[in-house]
């Protein structure tokens, strides 16, 4: 049987001096604590990844100021075959930006210019924070089509290369849907870095690839006309009634929504700052909808026996509290604060979602707590879920995931750092081909695209 041996790169004083010449001494970090901090993300959501990745970190971190610096630093890395891991806000899950083979972390958060918002398209540098883009866009009558719930900290580069969708996806779909993306420009990891612009459909090959098949240096994302949204909380002790009503609202195209999230009791117990609006024993819906339509939505809820406990009116500019801080992957964060043995899974239900949910709640009482998000996929509302799971062992988690599949639920595994195992990659061949083109030395986040044949840091031995 062929075995393999890991050969880690050796970063020496000569490399460090070259980096300092390009970006200045203060932007090259070599002390353990700073490098560790810039090497980690929210991988610890998964008890499996926590074990696998907690000792992984880069040798150094370099803070990049502009494109010329990025080119020069990448060129040094390419010449010396040093692994490169790109980093935006570092809010990714699954260890996306944790280096497996040490090397250099490139922090691109200073490359954060919003280059233009003309014609309803945000053209930005990779480190532009999503909240900054949303704020500037709203001043001109636009808003972002979709945002992760980490929008305050996360960057455009990180969202496109690590994220998938979130706030706004109920109306505009996920990042990859429709014409949300206009273009992405990638830079190659070579001695003489090259640029390639991907437009419209071509962009799909570059998305959600963890910085393995190119360095994103510019993006154009389409915006939507700005809307004022109120945030509402609805509650009911009757799970099925609340589910049916919420699904009806999600599917009602006439209601303009930005967020539709639902939580089974006792998930809301973890939302401490909202406690007085979340009565004991009640399942909860957070709904963000166009301000003028909210009174009708509330009246309809009351007519259907569902209680409305709070409306947070829209403010311009947007300011907290944001109900989104409790939705999507934030739900797991609050649960883990209360009980560190909680984790999650990611899945999409079929058209028979009521039945699938019933089966899950019956099969795993106390072990799974339901958390639902509605999005738009292929022009139709789709129910997805990041259920909370009480973790006991890797084997048990696998049994639970196998049951999801058995009853026809599609899953994306959040407990792996391997791109191909996480789902969402029917086009992995094209992604691999792009990696050959943009990363001929195999130095971009090596090990994450596991089926890519060339990893210079792993040597086969007999
Ligand atoms: C509490 C919580 C809630 C979340 N909610 C959501 C959500 O609603 N929707 C969602 O989609 N995600 C969500 N996420 C995941 C994550 O926050 C988002 O995907 C976010 O947009 C990542 O942006 P970032 O700047 O932090 O990326 P980072 O974590 O810095 O990077 C993510 C990936 O992109 C790569 N990358 C970064 N910049 C570049 C570049 N310029 N070129 C190439 N590769 C690059 C990194 O190497 C890494 O692999 C959540 C995570 C947490 C912890």
Blueprint (SSEs and pairs):
Elements: E1 3-6, H1 13-23, E2 28-29, H2 32-39, H3 47-53, E3 60-63, H4 67-79, E4 84-87, E5 104-107, E6 114-116, E7 121-124, H5 130-139, E8 142-144, H6 156-162, H7 169-172, E9 181-187, E10 195-199, E11 215-225, E12 229-236, H8 239-251, E13 257-263, E14 283-290, H9 294-303, E15 307-312, H10 328-338, E16 342-344, E17 346-348, H11 353-363, E18 368-369, E19 371-377, E20 380-385, E21 388-390, H12 394-406, E22 410-412, H13 428-438, E23 458-461
Parallel strand pairs: 3-5, 4-5
Antiparallel strand pairs: 1-23, 2-3, 6-7, 7-11, 8-11, 9-10, 9-11, 12-14, 12-15, 13-14, 13-19, 16-21, 17-20, 17-22, 18-21, 19-20
Helix pairs in contact: 1-4
Tell me briefly what this model is.
28% of the residues lie in helices and 24% in strands.
């Amino acid at each position: 049987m062929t075995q393999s041996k890991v050969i880690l790169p050796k970063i020496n004083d000569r490399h460090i001096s070259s980096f300092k010449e390009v970006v200045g001494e203060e932007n090259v970090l070599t002390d353990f604590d700073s490098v560790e901090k810039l090497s980690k993300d929210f991988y610890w959501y998964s008890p499996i990844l926590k074990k696998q990745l907690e000792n992984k970190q880069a040798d150094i971190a370099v803070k990049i100021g502009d494109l010329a610096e990025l080119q020069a630093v990448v060129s040094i890395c390419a010449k010396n075959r040093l692994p490169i891991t790109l980093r935006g806000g570092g809010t990714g899950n699954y260890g996306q930006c944790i280096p497996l083979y040490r090397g250099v972390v490139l922090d691109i958060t200073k490359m954060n210019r919003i280059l233009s918002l003309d014609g309803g398209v945000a053209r930005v540098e990779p480190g532009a924070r999503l909240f900054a883009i949303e704020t500037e866009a709203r001043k001109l009558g636009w808003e972002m089509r979709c945002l992760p719930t980490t929008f305050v900290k996360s960057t455009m580069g990180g969202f496109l290369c690590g994220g998938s969708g979130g706030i706004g996806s109920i109306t505009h779909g996920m990042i990859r849907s429709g014409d949300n993306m206009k273009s992405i420009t990638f830079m190659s990891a070579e001695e003489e870095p090259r640029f390639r612009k991907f437009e419209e459909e071509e962009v799909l090959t570059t998305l959600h690839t963890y910085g393995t098949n190119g360095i994103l240096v510019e993006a154009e994302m389409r915006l939507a006309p700005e809307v004022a949204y109120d945030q509402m909380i609805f509650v009911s002790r009757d799970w099925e009634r609340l589910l049916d009503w919420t699904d009806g609202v999600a599917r009602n195209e006439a209601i303009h929504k930005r967020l539709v999230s639902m939580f089974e009791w006792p998930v809301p117990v973890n939302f401490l700052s909202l406690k007085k609006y979340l009565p004991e024993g009640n399942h909860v819906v957070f709904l963000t909808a166009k301000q003028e339509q909210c009174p009708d939505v509330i009246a309809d809820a009351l007519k259907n026996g569902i209680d409305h406990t709070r409306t947070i009116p829209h403010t311009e500019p947007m300011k907290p509290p944001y109900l989104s801080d409790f939705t999507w992957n934030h739900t797991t964060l609050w649960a883990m604060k209360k009980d560190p043995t909680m984790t999650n899974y990611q899945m999409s239900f079929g058209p028979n979602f009521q039945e699938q949910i019933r089966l899950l709640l019956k099969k795993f009482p106390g072990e799974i707590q339901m958390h639902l998000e509605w999005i738009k996929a292929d022009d139709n509302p789709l129910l997805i879920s990041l259920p909370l799971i009480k973790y006991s062992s890797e084997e048990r988690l696998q049994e639970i995931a196998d049951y999801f599949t058995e009853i026809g639920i599609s899953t994306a595994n959040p407990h792996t750092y391997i791109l191909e195992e996480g789902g969402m990659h029917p086009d992995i061949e094209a992604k691999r081909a792009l990696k050959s083109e943009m990363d001929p030395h195999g130095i971009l986040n090596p090990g994450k695209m596991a089926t890519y044949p060339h990893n210079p840091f792993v040597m086969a031995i007999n």
